[in-house]
Amino acid sequence: MSNKPSLELLFSQLGLANSPAAIELFIRTHQLPANQNLHDAPFWNKSQREFLIRYLVEDADEWVIWIDELNQQLHLNANKLQMA
């Protein structure tokens, strides 16, 4: 795997299993309500939360795209409910 940021590498950086199946399972089982910020989710540990906040605050181009993608994926159910 290359070191170019990707969703798989983001999961790896967060210390999570990063196979496509593992990512899909994580996203499906960790859906957040619409008003929940990604970095405030209760399932992150301290270092995971700090990683997310650091790269969001720095607006680090290489990571912010993938953190935003993760944020959108973890809010899929909330977004569907708002549209209904």
From TrEMBL:
Pfam families registered for this protein in UniProt: DUF2789
Task: List the source organism.
Answer: Acinetobacter terrae
Instruction: Please state what the protein is called.
Output: DUF2789 family protein
